[in-house]
Amino acid sequence: MLIFNVGALANQLGVHRNTVTNWIKSGKLAAETTAAKKYAIEKDIFRRFCIGEHIPDEIVEKILTGAFEKPTAPKPRNLHNIPQREPIMRKKNLGSVMVVGGGIAGIQSTLDLADSGYYVYLIEKSPGIGGAMAQLDKTFPTNDCAM
C-alpha cells in the first residue's frame, strides 16, 4: 500500500498537483481517500498506471521504495535513536465535527473538514446560510456580486 500526498507525488512525477488531482477525480488513478488529505493506492495498481502514463521506471521505483524524501533539517545529535513508526491511516471517516455558524468562514471550514475525512454538521440559527455576505449586493473593491 502506497500512501501519498498529492503535492509530494506531483513533485516526484514532475507534473502539476492539479494533474494528479484530475487523475484521481477521473478515476484514471484509482486512489482511495484516507485521513489528513492523503491518498492510498496499491503498489501494483500504481505501477500499472505509471506504465500507461509513460513515467520512467527509475522514478516509479524511487517512489515505491521511498527513496524520494523531502529534505529535512538535520537532527540534533544529543537525541537517542528513537524508532520511527508509520502512522495508521483509516479508510473510514475520522469522526464527526460540529461547525457553528453558516457564514462564509463556517461554510469554508465545513468544506475543508469534510475534505479531510470528517463527518461535519453545520449549524446555523437562521433559515439561510451565508451570513452577512448573503445580504450584500456588491463587494469592494471589484464590485462583484457577493454570492
UniProtKB/TrEMBL annotation:
Going by the UniProt record, its keywords in alphabetical order are: Oxidoreductase
Presence of the UniProt keyword Oxidoreductase in the record: yes
Q: Which GO terms describe its molecular function?
A: CoB--CoM heterodisulfide reductase activity
The EC number(s) given in the record are 1.8.98.1
One Pfam family it belongs to: NAD_binding_8
| Superkingdom of origin organism | Bacteria
User: What's the protein called, per UniProt?
Assistant: CoB--CoM heterodisulfide reductase iron-sulfur subunit A 1
